[in-house]
Amino acid sequence: MVKVNTRWRVLLLCNYSPMYGGNFIPSLLALEKEIVSRGGECVYAFPVQAKKRSWFKQLMQMGKTVVTIDFLQTRYKQLCAISDIIKRYQITHIHSHFCSTLLLEIVAYLHPAVTVIIHLHSDWSLGTTSWKQKLKFFMLYKLLAARVRFLSVSSAFVAYNPAKITYVPNALATERLPAVSVDRAELRRRWGISERDVLCEIFAWSPLVKGLDIAAEAVKQVRAKGVAVKLAVVYGDAMPPEKLQTWLGAHTSCSGKEDFLLYVPPTEDVFSYHRAADILISASRSEGFPYSILEMLSLGKPCVMSDIPGVAWAKQFENTFVFPSENSAACAVALEKALAAPKMLEKTVQKIGATYNIANWVKTVVAHYEQ
To answer: Taking the model in full, what pTM does it have?
Structure first.
């Protein structure tokens, strides 16, 4: 029997405003559906900058309760804004994403009747942890964590405080927000990519963290052997093509303007990019749990990945090819192995569907609301 919680009022507090909703927004919608089925209600809170995004407007059109917060204002004003939402909507649970851990810990002390769950997503460590960061982690995840609980997309984060942090890997949300879909042949035609070309893709809105330099050098090395490989670089608002070219010129042997580099904008229909591409390169120096690898594997396509904790879960699949982080020569070798692999592995598709199922994910998450 489904447990009914008529008193649940869940604030999904998200410091999230990228151009596309991707897997994240549909995951929240799936979570809301589960909460509502149990008799609860949800309020979404996003940064004021998100109001211009199409996914934000779609949430409004769907009749969702959506409010905005200015996350750029002082911590005190943010606390006041969150407190106002708690009172206005009689919030019983806060489930935060991409928000300041300290901010939410203060909220938990100010509102002891509210259950506060902090979802840990991102890893900006670049693979190293200084003594200052270790001290910060000790303060945030142990000393100040008495009134909160954590869900982590990476098993590596659990070590910060095993008593408080639970590993919950991301899941694939198959019901995406409406978007105009473009098929593989058409998109490659638009990009000037023939079927003879091998098209790799990398998401590089933060080029240092995402290892764009490593991927570009690796593709250049493979091309030097006569293989027609090209790299589609998905950029972000803060790093448009011109800045990425300058960055590559400063950090690699490339100028950033090579004809094998193709700069493409972010898109809501990210699966059109995955279908157009033959291989995903994830050369990140650190990660939480990248949706891009999960999405590409769901199509059965090969992924070349740096060997870091945030992608360790993907090693179980035969069409993943791992290389030591920050080693472009090893990345080139892994890319060559991926080139010789099957273009599509059906058993990977099936395993992804069974293991990283959004229905299982929402039930796991909601179970933590009941503790």
So the answer is: 0.90
